[in-house]
């Protein structure tokens, strides 16, 4: 996986996070979150283009820790919507960075099609 692809996917995640939380804040819907939508989008991207399970597990764990760690730290000072948007965007960026590092370290050919089942 290339770093430019990781940056493009990360930018898409930040856009969805910012727009989603902006819309939910305008509608005053604190129980809704675009985080599941981002997670489903990343899962679809993974299955369509990059089936490196080692990288996926590492990325999931890193993203999970960052998301819930940042939410707890940021919410008291920034409020729910801003803290959740920042935590979701940061978690997706960390997850994609970890995914790229592990994928590249595993020695897979970049741009190669995913292995069939």
From TrEMBL:
This is Integral membrane protein. The chain crosses the membrane at residues 32-49, 56-75, 81-102. Keywords: Membrane, Transmembrane, Transmembrane helix. It comes from the Bacteria. It comes from Streptomyces tanashiensis. The lineage of its organism: Bacteria, Bacillati, Actinomycetota, Actinomycetes, Kitasatosporales.
């Amino acid at each position: 996986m290339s770093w430019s692809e990781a940056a493009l996917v990360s930018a898409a995640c930040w856009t969805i996070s910012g727009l989603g939380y902006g819309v939910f804040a305008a509608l005053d819907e604190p129980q809704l979150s675009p985080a599941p939508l981002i997670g489903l989008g990343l899962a679809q991207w993974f299955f369509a283009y990059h089936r490196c399970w080692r990288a996926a597990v590492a990325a999931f764990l890193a993203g999970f820790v960052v998301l819930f760690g940042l939410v707890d730290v940021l919410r008291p000072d920034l409020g729910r919507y801003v803290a959740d948007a920042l935590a979701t965007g940061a978690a997706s960026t960390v997850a994609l960075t970890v995914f790229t590092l592990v994928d590249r370290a595993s020695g897979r050919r970049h741009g190669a099609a995913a292995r069939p089942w």
